[in-house]
Amino acid sequence: MASARLGADMSHVICEPEAGQVIKTYSPNLMVHPLMRQSDKVGPSETVDKLASSVVDMLARLHVIVIGPGLGRDSLMQDICARVITAAKKQNMPFVLDADGLYLAQTRPDLVKGYRECVLTPNVVEFGRLAKTQGIEIPKEGEVGEEEVCAKLSRALGGVLIIQKGAKDYISNGEKTMVSDIEGGRKRSGGQGDTLTGSLATLLAYRRAYLDGLWDVEGNLSKEDLLMLAAFGGSAITRESSRLAFKKNGRSLQASDLTEMVPIAFENLIGEKEESKL
Fold first, then answer.
1. Could you tell me the end-to-end alpha-carbon distance of the chain, in angstroms, rounded to an integer?
2. What's the CA gap between 29 and 187, in Å, rounded?
3. Quick one: which of 247, 232, 92, 227 has its CA closest to 184?
4. How do residues 165-210 score in pLDDT, each as one tens digit?
């Protein structure tokens, strides 16, 4: 939903059938595709390759994919996603891994290692698990080296872009590191990370349009710099959405409250071209 509210022309949700029935009730603007299957609900003729191919066939219609929110760790669901990632890499398509999508990066790091169009968005616990798999020690909060660990993990994974979520968001591709520390809300509600992944997905789609020369623009930003800027923009919009939602709802804030604040956060931080804040 955050992707749509930030301006994506179409937002597709690829899920399993039972989840699809519920997701369709969220908004008539979502394109819901019940193409996934869990291990205990797969049909006799539905092989992992066949199921994955139905998702892969959709990639030509998309600019970016997000894998993880609501995915779970069912072995068949994870295997399908692994095949989709492999296909996306062949098409040089950017993808974002969050939530249970990060479990793929943790258990099958070769899927993402060295792919510079991949963005990982771990929280504190998820970051710790990823770091452990790469033999990286995490300093305690406030210790020397706290700002370097995100870059270390990125380098260990071959330069994938990482948004390390926390009190400050560290964004690194192993060579450059940015810090996103604008004020956020005072409550962290489970599911707020979906606002980041949705916002980031739309900004990555805009990046694709920029690189394809669809817009008249000044300057010539590299795809690496654009990826960093998209990540910073997604982080900043999420933090501002959280601040606005907390200001309105206080301690009753829920993750879904951020969604309606996304376009306002965009206007506050960036704005349209004729009145851009940048």
1. 25
2. 29
3. 247
4. 999 999 999 999 999 999 999 998 888 999 999 999 999 999 999 9
Residues 93 and 59: beta-carbon distance below 8 Å: yes
Q: Can you tell me the distance from the alpha carbon of 71 to that of 26, in angstroms, rounded to the nearest whole number?
A: 18
pLDDT, position 144:
57
**Which residue shows structure tokens 């690496």?**
224
**Residue 110: strand, helix, or coil:** helix
The closest of 276, 278, 271, 232 to 7, measured between CA atoms, is 271
What is the distance between the alpha carbons of residues 111 and 224, in angstroms, rounded to a whole number?
20
Can you tell me the mean pLDDT for 78-104? 98
Alpha-carbon distances, residue 276 vs 193, 229, 266, 267, 272 (angstroms): 26, 15, 10, 8, 5
Give the whole-angstrom CA distance, residue 269 versus residue 50.
44
Q: What is the mean pLDDT of residues 133-157?
A: 87
Amino acid at 23: I
Please check whether residue 59 is in contact with residue 92, taking contact to mean a CB–CB distance below 8 angstroms: no
SS3 (DSSP) at 66: strand
Instruction: Tell me the one-letter amino acid at 81.
Output: C
CA distance 51 to 34: 11
